[in-house]
Design goal:
This protein is of the alpha+beta class. It is 33% helix and 21% strand. The strands form two sheets. A four-stranded antiparallel β-sheet has the order 4-5-1-6, sandwiched between helices. A two-stranded antiparallel ribbon has the order 2-3.
Length: 179
């Protein structure tokens, strides 16, 4: 099947003309490919990580080593997705603010950081599985620009309590069967 830009063009989930390299707090959710619960299992309100989940957690913790303008905040690995808060700091952020376009990544921007994270996890997971080119993550990711301290505290609480509410979570495969 030939590529048809009208048919195969995917819609971006990012805010149009928003500068994702600017200082601020960002809540990110990244789902596994096919929402397969490959990252772990929730038992008694805690996620017990698989090898893939440990890689996902470890790579998240490594983000500031590769992007010094990033500070990590609340983070959780769930069976088929991760939630995390990333803080982009101005002191070391890229001084040139531009809007990211396809094929033209902006250094130190949220899309560049997430792309790098997903790539690092995929590479390590495929080495662990002894496979190459197998997808780990769903295409794209979800993000929410945290607007103020109240919003930040609500998101932190959501992330922290996510595993406790897994039985009710819409991402829980057991709940998909009920619908």
């Amino acid at each position: 099947m030939r590529y048809d830009p009208k048919e195969h063009r995917s819609r971006s989930l990012r805010l149009k003309d928003y500068d994702y390299s600017q200082e601020g707090a960002y809540f990110v959710t990244i789902c596994t490919h096919g929402k397969v619960p490959s990252l772990g299992n929730v038992v008694d309100g805690e996620t017990r990580l698989t090898g893939t989940g440990m890689i996902a957690a470890g790579c998240w913790e490594e983000i500031p080593k590769h992007f010094p303008n990033i500070a990590l905040d609340a983070f959780v690995v769930m069976p088929n997705h991760i939630h995390g808060i990333l803080m982009i700091r101005r002191d070391t952020a890229c001084r040139v603010s531009t809007v990211e376009r396809f094929g033209k990544p902006v250094a130190n921007s949220l899309p560049t950081i997430i792309r790098s994270y997903k790539s690092a996890v995929t590479k390590q997971v495929n080495e662990l599985r002894r496979s190459s080119g197998s997808p780990v993550w769903q295409r794209n990711y979800y993000e929410h620009v945290i607007r103020d301290e109240k919003d930040l505290n609500e998101v932190r609480e959501y992330v922290t309590n996510n595993a406790l509410k897994w039985d009710l979570d819409s991402e829980n495969p057991a709940n998909l069967e009920i619908r």
